[in-house]
Amino acid sequence: MSWNTFGRTLRFTTWGESHGPAIGAVVDGCPPGLALAEEDIQPFLDARKPGQNKFTTQRKEPDAVRILSGVFEGTTTGTPISLLIENTDQRSKDYSEIANTYRPGHADYAYDAKYGLRDYLGGGRSSARETAMRVAAGAVARLVIPEVSILAYVAEIGGDAVDPANFDADEIARNPFWCPDAAAAKRWEALVDEARKAGSSLGAVVECVATGVPAGWGAPIYAKLDSDLAAGMMSINAVKGVEIGDGFGAARLTGEQNADPMQPGNDGPRFAANHAGGIAGGISTGQPVTCRVAFKPTSSILTPVDSITRGGEATEVRTKGRHDPCVGIRGTPVVEAMMALVLADHKLLHRAQCG
Amino acid sequence: MSWNTFGRTLRFTTWGESHGPAIGAVVDGCPPGLALAEEDIQPFLDARKPGQNKFTTQRKEPDAVRILSGVFEGTTTGTPISLLIENTDQRSKDYSEIANTYRPGHADYAYDAKYGLRDYLGGGRSSARETAMRVAAGAVARLVIPEVSILAYVAEIGGDAVDPANFDADEIARNPFWCPDAAAAKRWEALVDEARKAGSSLGAVVECVATGVPAGWGAPIYAKLDSDLAAGMMSINAVKGVEIGDGFGAARLTGEQNADPMQPGNDGPRFAANHAGGIAGGISTGQPVTCRVAFKPTSSILTPVDSITRGGEATEVRTKGRHDPCVGIRGTPVVEAMMALVLADHKLLHRAQCG
Amino acid sequence: MSWNTFGRTLRFTTWGESHGPAIGAVVDGCPPGLALAEEDIQPFLDARKPGQNKFTTQRKEPDAVRILSGVFEGTTTGTPISLLIENTDQRSKDYSEIANTYRPGHADYAYDAKYGLRDYLGGGRSSARETAMRVAAGAVARLVIPEVSILAYVAEIGGDAVDPANFDADEIARNPFWCPDAAAAKRWEALVDEARKAGSSLGAVVECVATGVPAGWGAPIYAKLDSDLAAGMMSINAVKGVEIGDGFGAARLTGEQNADPMQPGNDGPRFAANHAGGIAGGISTGQPVTCRVAFKPTSSILTPVDSITRGGEATEVRTKGRHDPCVGIRGTPVVEAMMALVLADHKLLHRAQCG
Amino acid sequence: MSWNTFGRTLRFTTWGESHGPAIGAVVDGCPPGLALAEEDIQPFLDARKPGQNKFTTQRKEPDAVRILSGVFEGTTTGTPISLLIENTDQRSKDYSEIANTYRPGHADYAYDAKYGLRDYLGGGRSSARETAMRVAAGAVARLVIPEVSILAYVAEIGGDAVDPANFDADEIARNPFWCPDAAAAKRWEALVDEARKAGSSLGAVVECVATGVPAGWGAPIYAKLDSDLAAGMMSINAVKGVEIGDGFGAARLTGEQNADPMQPGNDGPRFAANHAGGIAGGISTGQPVTCRVAFKPTSSILTPVDSITRGGEATEVRTKGRHDPCVGIRGTPVVEAMMALVLADHKLLHRAQCG
Fold first, then answer.
1. What's the distance, CA A254 to chain centroid?
2. How far is B19 from C103, CA to CA, in rounded Å?
3. What is d(CA C230, CA D255) in angstroms, rounded to the nearest whole number?
4. Residue B100 DSSP SS3
5. C13 with C120: CB under 8 angstroms?
6. Which of B9, B31, B349 sits opposite C355 (nearest CB)?
């Protein structure tokens, strides 16, 4: 894996900055013969795109994707698929004030320390805008794994969690929070709106479940399915934690409590529980693959925070650009995309070795 | 990265099964000119090795490492360093009963589903015995990053956490739990002993802190320092969750609470907090790099658990082999090793691009 | 390395088909802080571009490159550099006759056997048009190795070789053949023109010399400098052979004849000969790095050749599209680019391990 | 691919020095379920091993291989296969004189320039002894491609070529030169013996043919089958040139002469010629895959050659250790092994993408 490339067999490379002319991805290793058109990708981008309601950033980007290669007469050819989205709503003036200042909590200082320069326009390469290309690449990955269904949703915002008893998958697309619990969605509306008005921000936890993954995907030791999921999820902007199955909760259980007993089933074993999140020894067990992803509150807030200039002098930063009060919301389609990308990669990887 | 290889620039490949003649690692890409002898590696293996007290498995392995290549007259040459440990205490009879049965919670079923065969001796390749080679490789990695100090410790066993107010780094090596809190160590003695006697097992949380990491290590987007740490930690046996900095806790904070304000310092900024765990945008900030790792309770318990045979028939499994009542304890030196391996890799990776 | 990616540290990925909307490359791992603009790349593309004289294909492509990312205010940022060239002169009708037929000697049959489909427009991904992106990426690579000068030229066309006694580097750019021997250029004019008029084609040998490469680049065993050069050159369309230094000639020498004696020099040894082509044990010696590359005659000829249809029936193929009578000529800037890409990659790779 | 690792899907990593305690390889990605024992590997090592007759080095090494992992009850498990050979006949005193001197033509100076040190014992890592592990790994690779037959032979020694009219595959194993032409073998006996007695050395050309390769292996653009073959062959010690099919000869043909006409066949096309060496556009065509590899004469000769000391002073070097008068001879099984390794890798790679 290279620096801007993810995957082992189905690999994608992303490029582009927040305020450059365009962003893009190259998906390499996609099997030939799959029907693929821009319409297969666009709905996933639409689900992620900004400016759709008052709970997300007001940057308006149509995020219209173009396929520039790898498809001939509507079918993938096995050659690299180049995807491109033009940036259209770059308000660069929003950023002029911070050209010489580091925004605390953002990557500004770290990038400068590494590269010796400061692309101050919207965070440059460190902007979450990059995740649009993961969503686009993820739409291609989904075609590789038609046997798998993936569902991500927000399980918690600002510490307020959904009630599992209220879980309703159909509810998820009905509210602006990807929330599976109608009651929680109601509460979050007030919660997020309050944060938005205050120029504050909130963290969130996103859960993702993939059903239909057959037993046998994942490759020990250093291409374990859970290891690759952890890498993929942790690489999403603002993510600070990843759990597989019960995650940190498992650390509080005994071996008896954490057991996933197996019973004879029709097609492989029937499991009496899924504490493991569908992965044992790095390999899928045939149970649903589950993970939880923690998003921090975005560091872009109106309250002034102590910072320093590039020259090392004390200053204060208030973030005035357009930002999400809760980045975890728009992170949800990205989590789904990363799940698809990791699973599709492992399907092909498994096929390579095990036929 | 290949299946049994980890790292981008400083890469290591491990091989070997729990009950084969030996296990080993090949460390490739190590800079030349470093003083290296077996005595530099052995203490780290001794810290991890089994059978040292009643709180870990009673398998007796001297885990004596041999360096077979890559060192000439006491100095690394820049060529691959081959490390080998012979297995000496394989009691294969302990496993004969499960040759035809899957141990629930172990990788048995998943491996069989993937590879179509069953190496029933101690879990074969899925055994945590493999982690000895990470510890050995990690000892080499430490030589590459003399500027960094790494400290891992157990922060929680069975839900009983250390009290930060009692934190004493010197205490860690004084008790069999790598516990930095003398009072907690005392409590854990009873807790773990009780689990051991009951043939039960306990989960644990391990924390790891690396100080001395300069700002600038880590490479966005898909070689982020936190992404590679997540992959490395999640690949350790029994690990189910990884957090960087405040991790899931950050998801419950507001942007104001989660801010890491910067003030002018002597050598880079002085940070007023470290919620981010020393990493922003995937790149180190110069603060301590911190992570937390959740270990599940081992699935090897004396209580019978429902399972199935290879033929698909119902059965029960009780684990009678020698096992750790709390694998997180022996996982602590492994977490430290993975931190060293990821940081050393990124030091070299940074040097490649940024000179 | 992935399928459409080349390089270890400085990696580039190309995408695009002969008759798609565009072709492109993503260069990843480029050091930050280098001045880079489209004008730094365009001259190299102009040197390769088709339609410049009667000795190359008459396809007219301006091959105007755009930089879409990785450069901020005229300077590389260390993030991926996306390069894009639009295709403008696709005469797809030229190919309609062969939609159902395999052109002998071309990749048509092999691609169909592999992927199960037939992108018949100009060879699709197998077209030499892809090499434009290597030239563009190579222009970036040159900025990474300012200490190195690279010179490629045609040494032989249709078996007619230049006379080393006539070698004049200044002559190379003065004729349409990149020929360093004015007398040979004169002869080739007649030779190539005759082939062109007859609808025939000629093979060629290209030589490439890189001076200024310091001793120490290249990494044994499987990242040897000569091994990577061989891979890079052999991946160019129509290339069938690669030699380093004396190449096959060395197989006819004795050890005494092939010796490269060393004498004391001012800055490293002074070598009395360079049979080795500047590489020993896969590592540069400080001498000029030299290689020779054999291009076959293009398979696109007017003489009918036996072939089969996709359905397996006998047919004949005459190639009527626009083609080069001697692809080695336009391959010369591509050889130069690959040399630059391999050397730049190895400079960074060396820096990673050896500081 | 890492520095000491070759392959994309079926990868092998070698380690070890000429005069260290052992050499080894780790083969990763091998499919499970293949019968594998040491007896499957040993014959190939015996074919390469030194000291078998007066035409090869007199170093006596039994080269007995041990399998340390990856095989359970006689069957590959899909986990890494560790192969180890102990070094037994290291006469280190032969080398004491050159501890401070560079042998011209060897990698001595280049390694020192790169790594800043001098492993003078038999060339250390740069010794052709490493190729034993490729032969061992190649024996495993052969099991992955039972449909393919590979035959390598020496086609030319010191400029004296075999006569194609005399080609007899059965003859190859009957003489010490892997020569398919009994008359040439006779001539070479005198030729090589003369070189041996004079302390001189001779170059050679090895040819290799793989039959049974189906159409469709190889992956454009940068994982072309010919590109990977070129990399693999060029990485063998003393190799200076690689040709696929007609190679440099193709550069002297016209398009008409170089055509490989296709006619209807029973199972894919029937080709009327194979100038292309079984590869078009980087993908196998179903024809035999052929390549030619040029070995230089070894630089170890008794005639004194000018050189310098590590301190930069003038000196002379005569090589007194045990050496091959024609390294191409023992290179023949290595060429065969590399062909097997590349083809097996590509079989799995093809399966990943194209099912």
1. 32
2. 56
3. 24
4. coil
5. no
6. B31
Residue B221: closest CA among A96, A239, A301 = A239
Separation between Cα atoms, residue C77 and residue C35, nearest integer Å: 10
- Under DSSP, the state recorded for B21 is S
Q: What is the dihedral of CA B242, B247, B251, B256, to 10 degrees?
A: -160
Residues paired with residue D151 on neighbouring β-strands, in sequence order:
D209
Are the beta carbons of C121 and C290 closer than 8 angstroms? Answer: no
Q: Which residues in chain C are contacts of A6 at CB distance < 8 A? A: none
In sequence order, which residues have a C-beta less than 8 Å from that of residue A325 and are 6 or more positions away? A55, A192, A195, A196, A200, A201, A202, A298
Which has the higher per-residue pLDDT, B89 or D4? D4
pLDDT tens track for D198-255: 999 999 999 999 999 999 999 999 999 999 999 999 999 999 999 999 999 999 999 9
Mind giving me the DSSP string for C76-103? E-SS-EEEEEE-----GGGGGGGTTBPP
Give residue-wise pLDDT tens across range B266-279: 888 999 999 999 99
pLDDT per residue as tens digits for the range D239-278: 999 999 999 999 999 999 999 999 999 888 999 999 999 9
The alpha-carbon radius of gyration of chain C (Å, integer) is 21
**pLDDT for residue B322:** 67
Strand D22-28, strand D81-86: pairing: antiparallel
Q: Is the preceding peptide bond at C23 cis, omega within 30 degrees of 0?
A: no
What one-letter code names the amino acid at B70? G
As a whole number of angstroms, the distance between CA D13 and CA C221 comes to 10
**Residue in A32, A79, A351 nearest the CB of D352:** A351
b/e B191-222 (16+ beta carbons within 10 angstroms → b): bbeebbeebbbbbbbbbbbbeebbbbbbbbbb
CB contact under 8 A, D254 and C284: no
B40-59 pLDDT, tens per residue? 999 999 988 777 777 777 77
Mean pLDDT, chain A, rounded, equals 94
State the Rg of chain A over Cα. Answer: 21
Between CA C299 and CA D257 the distance in angstroms is: 10
The nearest CA of chain C is from the CA of D345 a distance in Å of: 13
Residue of A nearest to C32 (CA): A115
Binary contact (B352, C29; C-beta < 8 A): yes
Q: What is the pLDDT of residues C177-233, one digit of tens each?
A: 999 999 999 999 999 999 999 999 999 999 999 999 999 999 999 999 999 999 999
Give me the pLDDT at residue C1, please: 44
The span from the CA of A41 to the CA of D95, in Å, is 65
Distance from CA of C38 to the nearest CA of D (A): 25
How high is the pLDDT of residue A182?
97
Task: Report yes or no for ipTM above 0.90.
Answer: yes
- What pLDDT, in 10s, does the model give residues A174-189? 999 999 999 999 999 9
Distance CA D59, CA D50 (A): 6
pLDDT value at D186 more than 80: yes
Residue pair B248/A205 in contact (Cβ under 8 Å)? The answer is yes
Nearest CB among A13, A68, A80 relative to C21 is that of A68
pLDDT of C94 strictly over 50 = yes
Q: What's the CA gap between D83 and A218, in Å, rounded?
A: 25
SS (H, E, C) A268-315: CCEECCCCCCCEECCEECCCCEEEEEEECCCCCCCCCEEEEECCCCEE
Q: How far apart are CA D20 and CA D210, in angstroms?
A: 35
CA A113 to chain centre: 26
Which helix (DSSP H) or strand (DSSP E) does residue B331 occupy? Answer: helix B327-354
Are A11 and D353 spatial neighbours (Cβ–Cβ below 8 Å)?
no
C-alpha to C-alpha distance for B297 and D192, rounded to whole angstroms: 67
